[in-house]
Design a protein that fits this description.
homodimer, about 350 residues, alpha/beta, Aspartate Aminotransferase, domain 1, 7-stranded mixed sheet, 9 helices, about 35% helix, binds pyridoxal-5'-phosphate, binds magnesium ion, Aminotrans_V_dom (chains A, B)
Amino acid sequence: MTTRVYNFNPGPAALPLPVLERVRDELLDYKGTGMSVMEMSHRSQEFSRILEEAIARIKRLLKLDDRFQVLFLQGGASLQFCMVPMNLALTGKPIDYIDTGTWSSKAIQEAKILGKDVRVIASSEDKEYSYIPGNFSVDEDASYLHITSNNTIRGTQWKSFPNTGGIPLVADMSSDIFSRVFDPSPFGLIYAGAQKNAGPAGVTIVIIRKDMLERVPPELPTMLKYTTYAEKNSLYNTPPCFAIYVVGLVMEWLEEEIGGLEKMEAINRSKAEMLYSCIDEIEMYRGTAHPDSRSMMNVTFRLPTPELEKKFVEEAAQRGLVGLKGHRSVGGCRASLYNAVPVEAVEKLVEFMREFARNN
Amino acid sequence: MTTRVYNFNPGPAALPLPVLERVRDELLDYKGTGMSVMEMSHRSQEFSRILEEAIARIKRLLKLDDRFQVLFLQGGASLQFCMVPMNLALTGKPIDYIDTGTWSSKAIQEAKILGKDVRVIASSEDKEYSYIPGNFSVDEDASYLHITSNNTIRGTQWKSFPNTGGIPLVADMSSDIFSRVFDPSPFGLIYAGAQKNAGPAGVTIVIIRKDMLERVPPELPTMLKYTTYAEKNSLYNTPPCFAIYVVGLVMEWLEEEIGGLEKMEAINRSKAEMLYSCIDEIEMYRGTAHPDSRSMMNVTFRLPTPELEKKFVEEAAQRGLVGLKGHRSVGGCRASLYNAVPVEAVEKLVEFMREFARNN
Ligand SMILES: Cc1ncc(COP(=O)(O)O)c(C=O)c1O
Ligand SMILES: Cc1ncc(COP(=O)(O)O)c(C=O)c1O
Ligand SMILES: [Mg+2]
Ligand SMILES: [Mg+2]
Ligand SMILES: [Mg+2]
Ligand SMILES: [Mg+2]
């Protein structure tokens, strides 16, 4: 018999059970083709349909109009840290960044390696990245402004996106894409490694506003140019077919079982509120993010001692509540409540947290 | 009921049935973890074991000693076309290439885009890339010599690798890695998109001789440096975990069910001989590759007219023999006989070819 745990992993992370069941059932014979999706040509009609449907669902879910194009790349969000400035930096125009922790810091670092003119216009480093900066002004001559919409490690999240007065926004949405509704119009580019809210590791979703493609320098290596993917609908070379297929199934689940991002956001909000209430209420737990910057996706908290945290994580795992250890760079505890984590999992976690607090 | 076809796809391509069955059976609960491999942290003990085992099996199968390191990257073989020269070209030393068709040509093109000093020391372009050049001399001052071990499109394959007198060989082995035994010592680097002989699309295997890492320019973007992957055992960022898992299972199948590369090579040789004999024997079929350059992996052939070729491909598909259309750039027919294509599939194909010739 299959026993499934409650999975609070930060990424790769929980996938919707109905999606996994579909993948299992179709694994040896995809819709009567007599082969697995892993064995199909990326230029076959069947895969073409999988690709088109995944794109169409992403566009509907995010309410992207035809100014935007959805691309599938490889290399993780980390490759985007260098691809974005390579492709979108304009000569003589600085790139503005807001530094909200590890991932923004790495993005900044890669732009610097490329020798770009980087301006960090705001940072929350002064308080261990425990908040989202509110006080900054975007250079009106900037190539673009880069932000990380959700800091997976520190558990902070932009509640609304900065007004850039027409400067394109670029966002690393790896850990909160598809978790809530937002207006895509200020965005020039959005990228996300799929492995938190959208599918398995091994595919990166890039959403680009088509006018941004005009910025791409012609002399870049072919595989590092967004135009290569845009012109060939992500089929210049062999894409990560199976990962795209799973992303498509996750999008189908979001549209057809959940009912879209408004509904998903409401569920995510109630899960997060349930957990933050427990943290606030019980003396033993202390949230690490500033209340107005708290992430709905990654709930970070501490217990009085590292020993108690260790015990907490271990006892939780014994109860089938796994993935609760904080990121190795900051310690503590973290519960990632991505879309595929059911309300029931959070209920069980809160139940366990109450009990653990009573007994320790 | 599951009906499986005989799959002659050029890549993504057939996978061993026992591997697919394992993937299916473990999909919701990998070895009692209560989660799918797709849901596991890449830093978990379980995934670490999957990764280490895949590496160990690749090293054993290819008889790689500790001078070599096995890395898992993303971006396909196509990304390697630019990464190799970025990382391994030495200042003031030209890069030598042998051009055996589309894939070598693309590799050459990417080195040129980077402004490298490229020398094409041999090419079979004069005869539509129907043979592997035999007459060339490697520049004794070259950074390295790049070859494509098997031309997937033209159906040509290097029978033995060129003697470079100490200049490191670099090979794109995308379409024949793990198909036969070879001596790895002259190689500085080997790369292969997994989607032909090693697993699903979405992971690129890179085998690097460790001394080559000293060439990597420190100022490259982090994700484009081999040192990043080498220093972190392919875990600098989230690797394509699921694809690596499937590669590991294919390697297990190669070692434990097939019995290693000597045995695999013998099987591959007998499959290819069976098909080439049929082509040579029957008037209607004409092999396109020069006999001494014929690939054991991709058997390319023509029928008298494009109309007959179309009919051939369609009738074959009706019999459950799929993927026989030649590459869109060259037309004709192609049967890819990768490791996972069973002898039985080739027998059925030959049977059909005899019948088709009689009836047309
Ligand atoms: C916000 C954010 N950006 C980037 C990354 C790095 O992603 P990848 O491992 O796909 O390169 C992560 C990984 O956790 C992340 O959370
Ligand atoms: C020999 C060879 N090299 C490179 C490639 C391109 O590989 P990818 O699609 O993984 O970039 C192929 C694809 O068929 C190939 O056959
Ligand atoms: Mg972060
Ligand atoms: Mg509290
Ligand atoms: Mg080729
Ligand atoms: Mg003949």
